[in-house]
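User: Sequence in, structure out. Go.
Assistant: Echoing your sequence, followed by the structure tokens.
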Amino acid sequence: MSAGKPARILWNRRPTGRDVGCIDEIVLTGVDMVHVEQMDDRCWWIGITLADGTSWDGNFTADSKGRMRFFEQESSIEWALDASHEEDER
């Protein structure tokens, strides 16, 4: 990560059990590659690889009413900030 620009992830709802959670935002610098691919009519995969070789993968999905969700699939990123709106509400 570039100095002064830490990697961060902010969750609307953290994953628990079978619930994959829902991401509000991710911020990454030092990105080497971004790959976005439509997997089917309602699912888009995103893979981000950093210059140091670490990576993050996620999915955007839509239900039949067009409501979107954004969730993490895999990550080797060390987040400088990993927070949740749920924690802010406590």
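User: And one key feature?
Assistant: The mean pLDDT is 91.
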